[in-house]
Amino acid sequence: MKYNSLFAIACLWTLSACSSTTLIETTYDSSTNEHSTRVYTKYYDAGDWLVPDQLGASVVADHMKRRVPIVYGAQRSMGALGPDDSFAQAKITIYLWNFTDSSKEVSDIQLTSGGQSLQIDRKPVSAAPRSRTQIDMGVIDVFDSAKNIRVNVIYTVNGERLEQSLNLTRRTRDELRTLFGPNGRLPYPWHARLGELR
To answer: Looking at the DSSP assignment, which residues form a beta bridge with residue 106?
Structure first.
C-alpha cells in the first residue's frame, strides 16, 4: 500500500510539471460539409533585414503555459476556468544574422509589445561575421489563444539607431515541417543565403 501511495504521488508530480502549449482550431465549411483542423505549436516567429543584404534580425517567441493535463481538462469541461486561464507567457529570443565579413556591434536593444517592454542592460552584443547570434530578451504576457504577437524592436547597430516592427506568426505543425524541417525554406528574406554563414 505504501508503494501505491508513493507511485500515485510521483504520477501527480509528473503531471503537474507537464506543459500544454498547443492550440487546436477546428473549422467547418458548410458548402462542402467538411471539418478541418489546424494544430498550432508553441512557436511564433518573424524576421526582416535591419541593414539590407547585410544584417537580418528575427524574433522568436516560445509560448509557455503550465497546466496539469487531467485537472485542466476537467476544469474546462465543467466551465470552471478562471480569468487567468486566458493568459500565458512567451519567452522572447532575438537572432542576429550577419552576412558580412566584419562584426556588427549591437546595443541598447529594446522590445515592446502590448504595453510591455524588455530591454538589454548589458554591454553591446557582437554579431560575429557570417554567423547567427542569439540574444535572450526575457518574457512577456500573451493571450493563451493568440496566433500573432506584434512587436517593435529598437537597436543601435554600430552607432546607428534602427527600428523594426514585426508580426510574429504562431506556426502550425505543418509549417514547422515545411519551413524549419529538413530541406525547409526559412520564412525570412535571407533564406537563399544561409550557405554564406559559417
So the answer is: 125, 157
List, in sequence order, the alpha helices (H) in the chain: 2-16, 69-77, 173-175
Residue recorded with cell 526582416: 48
The residue extents of the domains of the chain are 2-196
- pTM for the predicted model, two decimal places: 0.80
198 strand-pairing partners: none
Enter the C-alpha cell of residue 188.
525570412
Q: DSSP for 99-132, please give it.
A: -SSS-EEEEEEEEEETTEEEE--SSPEEE-TTEE
Residue tagged 497546466 (cell numbers):
67
Give the cell for residue 121: 542592460
Find residue 94's DSSP bridge partners.
59, 135
Residues contacting 105, CB < 8 A, separation 6+: 124, 125, 126, 127, 157, 158
Give which of 54, 17, 44 is closest to 166, Cα–Cα.
Answer: 44
Reported as a single tens digit per residue, the pLDDT across 4-51 is 443 333 333 333 333 457 788 888 888 988 888 899 999 999 999 999
Mean pLDDT in residue range 87-115: 96
Cβ pair 129, 100 in contact under 8 A: yes
Instruction: Evaluate if residue 155 carries a pLDDT over 70.
Output: yes
Burial of 28 (0-12, 13-18, 19+ CB in 10 A): exposed
Residues 113 and 154: beta-carbon distance below 8 Å: no
